[in-house]
Fold this sequence. Notes:
Blueprint: H1 4-7, H2 19-24, H3 29-59, H4 69-105, H5 113-132, H6 162-191, H7 204-235, H8 259-292, H9 300-313, H10 329-357, H11 366-389, H12 391-397, H13 401-431, H14 437-464, H15 482-514, H16 575-578
This protein binds protoporphyrin IX containing FE (HEM) and copper (II) ion.
Amino acid sequence: MAYVAIADRDVHGHDPETFFLKYIWSQDHKVIAIQYSCVAIFVGLVALVLSALMRLQLGFPDTFHFVDPSQYYQFITMHGMIMVIYLLTALFLGGFGNYLIPLMCGSRDMVFPYMNMLSFWVYLLAVIVLLASFFVPGGPTGAGWTLYPPQAVLPGTPGAGSGIILMLVSLGIFIVAFTMGGLNYVTTVLQARCQGMTLMRMPLSVWGIFMATILGLLAFPALFVSAIMMTLDGTLGTSFFMPAISSMGADPGHDGGSPLLFQHLFWFFGHPEVYIVALPAFGIVSDLLSTHARKNIFGYRMMVWAILAIGGLSFVVWAHHMYVSGMNPYFGFFFATTTLIIAIPTAIKVYNWVLTLWKGDIHLTVPMLFAIGFIFTFVHGGLTGLFLGNVTVDLPLSDSYFVVGHFHMVMGVSPILVVFGAIYHWYPKITGRMWNDRLGRIHFWLTFLGTYAIYLPMHYLGILGVPRRYYALGDTEFLPESVHTINAAITIAALVVAASVVIFLYNMIVSLWKGEKAPSNPWGATTLEWQTPDTPPKHGNWGPRLPVVHRWAYDYSVPGAPEDFTPQNVPVDARHATGTGHGEG
Ligand code: HEM
Ligand SMILES: [Cu+2]
């Protein structure tokens, strides 16, 4: 195959000779993946702490006083933006994308290693600029993660001075970083697969990450231009989004801009963003389920087409986030229809996951528990999405806690469960060590049950009329007393889940030293990353010869095969003769 020359390209040009070149200014995709992941998890922890502070305020409004109303706005904004962009997007693409694409495609590295390295450092800069906003006068922006103008830049909003500008600049920098990484991921998948790795033999993890990257490359520019235009509105007094408006009796001097235009641009990015996070999760979960159920993925081709269909459709549904903006009913009808159509490929994927488990030889390992947990939370979050996709149902529920419950379920915890499952699954390959199984199980059950304890009651709160983005409810008459009890209970559950993250971190860090040495393929998996000659894989991944692929990624429990898995690099006729086919390419 024509691509192999690129897959096998000499990586010695950037052989890491010194400590700095090996661990800091590294151009090795595996090191960059770990750098990306560590920074993403670190900011993710910041966002987690913010959510715990918000929950303490909401659950016990009269007991704790360390969050004032302005800070509450700032915390939801930073929490939401960090979780969606700086944690999940960065971790799935910069972290897992970087680690898995070359290894799963049988390549030595990404196609543009230098740009890949720059991508990480620019991402780090974006994170620093974002966190800097905690330390400037006025603090971080409190505009909500949607950053809607005009309020985002008007003086009444917390962080309307430097806070919002730092947020916009940081987003711009993030998008530059994402683009440098993203071009790598797409080009590597298209141009640097090893011999025999046809597109339709690629593991679904690669498909999910690949499609998510394409979505990002097409969707982020909308956010990029809006960030620039709003920065100009906020600093130079232009009026792209700022209408002629009087703010607190003063005239801020804007004229004729369109706040609605921002909403369209934001959600033209924002809805695909949901799938930028979801598609890698879909792909990875498919591989986890298949591997740990010792069964081929049900309907592989259908799964690939569903990923492509969801990716395409995700660009024509954005205005379902704007039903309350006063749109033309025909417009609403159009967007409700496209939104509901997305449910079809999505449901197909769910059926196929369940059918993959059907009659499988299910090993309830920790990664498998998280994968199955994901199916539950994703179905629940998806179902309430069907409610909110309909204009007439959305109107009364919009901006209520029902929405908070829905989106946390579908794009908050569901991808997070996959992240945990994926970390447990690939940790032995990445570090060469096993983690502690018992701690992993405790972590899973606390997280999974805690998730339901936090988010199911939120739907009920929303139906009762509890509004989103409120610092305190007070003794509002239309809300029954039970609302306050439920809020306290949710907070306790949230603190338990937050504590379980400590167990996870402890397990991952201590196992680096204390964990048992991991075998090269502990799960008996078929995909190439488990067939590397070294664990963890060395620079260049494959030793002297690239692997050659002879089959798809899902030959589990094939009748007549010597083992219940046949790696992708085992020749078809040699299946009976070679046994495991470990290592050899
Ligand atoms: C235990 C974990 C989490 C807890 C306890 C939590 C809690 C909260 C709370 C209290 C709010 C403010 C709700 C309001 O007053 O309207 C919020 C908002 C939000 N959260 Fe989370 N959250 C968690 C995880 C996540 C994750 C993983 C994501 C990733 C997508 C996420 C994304 C968001 C977004 C986008 C908002 C909306 C911010 C806004 O309204 O501007 N959260 N969360
Ligand atoms: Cu959407």
